[in-house]
Automatic annotation (TrEMBL):
This is 3-methylcrotonyl-CoA carboxylase, subunit alpha. The keyword Cell membrane does not apply. InterPro entries: ATP-grasp, BC-like_N, Biotin_BS, Biotin_carboxylase_complex, Biotin_carboxylation_dom, Biotin_COase_C, Biotin_lipoyl, CPAse_ATP-bd. It holds the Pfam family Biotin_carb_N. Residues 120-321 form the ATP-grasp domain. GO terms for molecular function: ATP binding; metal ion binding; methylcrotonoyl-CoA carboxylase activity. It comes from the Bacteria. Keywords: ATP-binding, Biotin, Ligase, Nucleotide-binding, Transit peptide. Residues 1-448 form the Biotin carboxylation domain.
C-alpha cells in the first residue's frame, strides 16, 4: 500500500478521499489554487502545495504542476477525484511516465470510453445493448437529418465528447432539426473543442439507472445499481440505490452487461456504466440501453457505499496498489435503501442559476452522512462547482430512508447564499417520488409546484423580527432587559426589513408581543428554547452578517432595510447585467451596433452550462463593459444599450 498520495482535486471529493486515506494510515498531499488557500481540503490534508491561479486551467488542470507537486512531496500515487483531469488519458500517461501511480483506469481504457460514438460501437460489439441511433463519421447536416428521420422522432442530438449534460438537444419535429443541430455543435465546439455529434432515439418515460462496477484489470464485478432519474437540465439532483421497482432479472441482466462492458476494456478501478431505461411499461430486462461509461469515481458513489457497506475509495487505493479485487461477486450484498441529495448554492426559481456567497451560517444534522468541502464562514466562489454538500441517508426500507432524507434536509441550516434546499425538501415531499415513480421528466413536469416558495411560519418571522431589532439578547441568560427599551414600559417600536415590517411591544420584562400584518405572537425565552404563544418551539435564531435567520421550520431570513440598495437599481438604464457569477465567453456586439429585441448580446458560462444573454428591447449598443475571458460577479453590467434615436 502507498505511504503517501496526492489528491489532484478540491472540494468535497478531496475531503472524502483524505478521510479514507487517513483511516488506512496513508498520508495525504492536497493541492490548491489561489482561491482555495484557506479551503477545507487544504486544512484536512497532511501537506498542501499551491499550484496556481484560481481558474481551473491555471491550477487543477495543470497536469505538469500536479505531477511536480507529487514528486516534490514524495507522494507515490495521484488520486484524481472526479471532474478536472480524472478522465484525461494524456494526464494518466504523464503520471505513469513520471514513475507515479494513477489511482484509476489505464489511459487506454479511458480513451476507449472517452467519446460516446466509439464507446457505443465498442459496446455493441461486446454484446451490450446500445440506444438505437446513428454514431457514424458522416457529420453533414443532410446525412444527420436523414438518420434522424430513419430513427424516427423524437431524437436526441449528443456531442460525442459531451459530459455534464452539455451539447445535448432534444428534437421533437423535423422542422427543428437544423437549428438544434447547429446549436448542439456550437456548444460542443466551445465546451469540448469537438463539434461531432451522434443521433439517438429519445426514449420516452426515460429512467437513468447506472451500475457501479469495479475492475482490477483482469476481471470486474458490479456493486448494484443507482437510480439517478431525478435530474434537471440532464444533471442529477437526488440519487438512490437500489432503483425503485428493480427486479432480480433486470439487475442480473444489467449487471452482466455492465461487467461485460468493463471487462471488454480491461478496466481497473471504480467506474460507472450508465443506462437509459424505458420505464413506460415497468422495468424489463430487455428495456435498457448503454448510454456511456464514466471512468472515475462518481459523485453519487456514497449511496452504493451505504447499501453495500464497501468503502469505494479504499477499494480504489487497494486495486491501484496492485491488490486483486477485494471480493467476489457472490460476496457483495445490498441491504436497505439509500439516498443522496446535492445541496447547491443556486437560484432554483431563476432557472438553477449558480450563486456565490459567504456561508455565514452552516450546520448539518448528525442523522445524515455529510460530504462537504466547506465550513461555516467559507466562500462559495464563482470559480468552481457551487456544491455545498452531499447529504446521504439510509434506512431499512425506501420509505424510511426517504423520511430520513427529508428530516435531514429540514434540519440543515444555511445562511449567506441562496441554495436549492427548499427545492430538495419539496422533492422529498413529492407524492410521485415518494411512491418511487421516478423518470427524468419528473422535475420539469412539476417544476412550478416544486419551486413554489414554502410559506413561512409566522412564528419564525416574529422571532426573526425580534432578532433584527436586537432584542433577542433579552432572552438570553443573563438577560439584558435594558437593550433598546426602558424597564417595564409597554413601548411599541416598529421593525423594518426588506419586504416587510412588524411592531413589537414589551408588556413585561422578557415577554415580547410581535404584531405582523395578519397575526400577533407572544414570544419568550425559557428553559433553553423559544416559546411562542405559550408553547415550546424548535426555533433557533442565528445572527450573521447584518441579517438574521430562524431555523427549525421553513427557514426565514430577514435583512435590514438598506437605504443605499435602491440607488443601485438600473431598470430603464438599458444595462444588461450578468444574472449570475460566471465567465464571459463571447461578446457578440460592438459599440454603435444596432440590435433588435431578442438578438444575442453575450454568452456567459457558469460552471457547467452556457447562458445566452439577449437584448430585452431594440436599441443601439452604447458601451461594451466586459470582454471575453472576464470573470464577472452576479449583477455586473456587461452591455449598455441606448435608444436608437438618441443620437439621430
Ligand atoms: P456524475 O456524472 O458523477 O453525476 P456530475 O453530473 O456532477 O457527475 O458532473 C457532470 C460532469 O461534470 C462530470 O464529467 C464530472 O466529472 C464533472 N464535474 C462535476 N463536478 C465537478 C467539479 N467540481 N469540478 C470539475 N468538474 C466537475
Ligand atoms: P452526459 O455525458 O452529459 O452525462 P449522457 O449520455 O449520460 O450525457 O446523458 C445525460 C442524461 O440525458 C441522461 O441521464 C438522461 O437523463 C438523458 N438522456 C440521455 N440519452 C437519452 C435518450 N436516448 N433518451 C432519453 N433521455 C436520454
Ligand atoms: Mg452521463
Amino acid at each position: 500500500m502507498f505511504d503517501k498520495i496526492l489528491i489532484a482535486n478540491r472540494g468535497e471529493i478531496a475531503c472524502r478521499i483524505i478521510q479514507t486515506a487517513r483511516r488506512l494510515g496513508i498520508r495525504t498531499v492536497a493541492v490548491f489554487s489561489q482561491a482555495d488557500a484557506e479551503a477545507r481540503h487544504v486544512a484536512l490534508a497532511d501537506e498542501a502545495v499551491p499550484i496556481g491561479g484560481p481558474a481551473p486551467k491555471d491550477s487543477y488542470l495543470r497536469g505538469d504542476r500536479l505531477i511536480a507537486a507529487a514528486l516534490q512531496t514524495g507522494a507515490q500515487a495521484i488520486h484524481p477525484g472526479y471532474g478536472f483531469l480524472s478522465e484525461n488519458p494524456d494526464f494518466v500517461e504523464a503520471v505513469t511516465a513520471a514513475g507515479l501511480v494513477f489511482i484509476g483506469p489505464s489511459a487506454g481504457a479511458i480513451r476507449k470510453m472517452g467519446l460516446k460514438d466509439a464507446a457505443k460501437a465498442l459496446m455493441a460489439e461486446a454484446g451490450v445493448p446500445v440506444v438505437p441511433g446513428y454514431h457514424g463519421p458522416d457529420q453533414s447536416p443532410a446525412r444527420l437529418a436523414d438518420e434522424a428521420a430513419r430513427i424516427r422522432y423524437p431524437v436526441l442530438i449528443k456531442a460525442v465528447a459531451g459530459g455534464g449534460g452539455k451539447g445535448m438537444r432534444l428534437v421533437e419535429r423535423p422542422a427543428d432539426f437544423a437549428d438544434r443541430l447547429a446549436s448542439a455543435q456550437n456548444e460542443a465546439a466551445t465546451a469540448f473543442g469537438n463539434s461531432a455529434v451522434l443521433i439517438e432515439k429519445y426514449i420516452l418515460t426515460p429512467r437513468h439507472i447506472e451500475m457501479q462496477i469495479f475492475g482490477d484489470g483482469r476481471r470486474a464485478l458490479h456493486l448494484y445499481e443507482r437510480d439517478c432519474s431525478l435530474q434537471r437540465r440532464h444533471q442529477k439532483v437526488i440519487e438512490e440505490a437500489p432503483a425503485p421497482g428493480m427486479t432480480s432479472e433486470m439487475r442480473a441482466a444489467m449487471g452482466a452487461a455492465a461487467v461485460r462492458a468493463a471487462e471488454a476494456i480491461g478496466y481497473a478501478g471504480a467506474g460507472t456504466v450508465e443506462f437509459i431505461v424505458d420505464a413506460s411499461a415497468g422495468l424489463r430486462p430487455e428495456g435498457f440501453w448503454f448510454m456511456e461509461m464514466n471512468t472515475r469515481l462518481q459523485v453519487e458513489h456514497p449511496v452504493t457505499e451505504a447499501i453495500t457497506g464497501i468503502d469505494l475509495v479504499e477499494w480504489q487505493l487497494r486495486v491501484a496498489a496492485g491488490e486483486p479485487l477485494p471480493a467476489n461477486q457472490d460476496q457483495i450484498h445490498a441491504t436497505g435503501h439509500a439516498f443522496e441529495a446535492r445541496l447547491y448554492a443556486e437560484d432554483v426559481p431563476a432557472g438553477f442559476l449558480p450563486a456565490t456567497g459567504r456561508l455565514a451560517h452552516l450546520a448539518f444534522p448528525a442523522t445524515a452522512r455529510i460530504e462537504t468541502g466547506v465550513r461555516p464562514g467559507d466562500q462559495i466562489s464563482p470559480w468552481y462547482d457551487p456544491m455545498i454538500a452531499k447529504i446521504i441517508t439510509s434506512g431499512p426500507t425506501r420509505a424510511l430512508a426517504l423520511q430520513a432524507l427529508q428530516g435531514a434536509l429540514e434540519a440543515t441550516e444555511v445562511a449567506g447564499t441562496i441554495t436549492n434546499l427548499d427545492f430538495l425538501i419539496a422533492l422529498t415531499r413529492h407524492p410521485g417520488f415518494r411512491r418511487g415513480e421516478v423518470d427524468t421528466g419528473l422535475i420539469t413536469r412539476d417544476l412550478a409546484a416544486l419551486t413554489q416558495p414554502l410559506s413561512p411560519d409566522s412564528r419564525a418571522v416574529a422571532l426573526a423580527a425580534l432578532g433584527l431589532a436586537g432584542l433577542d439578547d433579552a432572552g438570553l441568560d443573563p438577560p439584558d432587559w435594558t437593550k433598546g427599551f426602558a424597564l417595564w414600559q409597554p413601548l411599541r417600536q416598529r421593525i423594518d426589513w426588506e419586504g416587510g415590517h412588524a411592531h413589537v411591544e414589551i408588556p413585561a420584562p422578557g415577554l415580547f408581543r410581535l404584531h405582523l400584518d395578519e397575526v400577533s405572537h407572544e414570544l419568550r425565552f425559557a428553559n433553553d428554547r423559544w416559546w411562542v404563544d405559550g408553547a415550546p418551539t424548535p426555533l433557533r435564531l442565528v445572527h450573521h452578517a447584518a441579517a438574521v435567520s430562524v431555523f427549525g421550520t421553513v427557514p426565514v431570513t430577514l435583512k435590514p432595510l438598506d437605504p443605499l440598495a435602491r440607488q443601485t437599481e438600473v431598470s430603464g438604464a438599458g444595462l444588461t447585467l450578468s444574472p449570475m457569477p460566471g465567465l464571459v465567453r463571447e461578446i457578440f456586439v460592438t459599440p454603435g451596433q444596432e440590435v433588435k429585441a431578442g438578438e444575442r448580446l453575450a454568452l456567459l458560462e457558469a460552471m457547467k452550462m452556457e447562458h445566452m444573454l439577449s437584448a430585452s428591447r431594440d436599441g443601439r449598443v452604447a458601451e461594451v463593459l466586459a470582454a471575453p475571458g472576464d470573470q464577472v460577479e452576479a449583477g455586473a453590467a456587461l452591455i449598455r444599450l441606448e435608444e436608437k434615436e438618441a443620437h439621430g
